[in-house]
Amino acid sequence: MNDKESQIAMELIFHSGNAKSTAMQAIIKAESDNIAEGKELIKQARKELHEAHAIQTNLMTAEINGEKVEKTILLIHAQDHFMAANLTIDLGERMINLHEKIVNK
Length: 105
Description:
Layout: H1 3-31, H2 35-64, H3 73-104
Helix pairs in contact: 1-2, 1-3, 2-3
């Protein structure tokens, strides 16, 4: 893996990690009955995930276009972070909505 490929994988980890952390903060806010702030944090998490998704899409496009994309443990780790962030955001959003329903009853 060359320096450029390592940097791309690290950027994917960075944005995915930020997305997951922000989604967890959103859940914590909702648990404290701060639903509006939780929803805002979910929006921010989705923006971070969008950045990560753009990196992932560029890697896939490069490979489809015949460029060699080396599959390393670092890149696999980056993909794991992306998937975990995506799942955390989706579940976080549902948890916030459920908590909102409970609070409003």
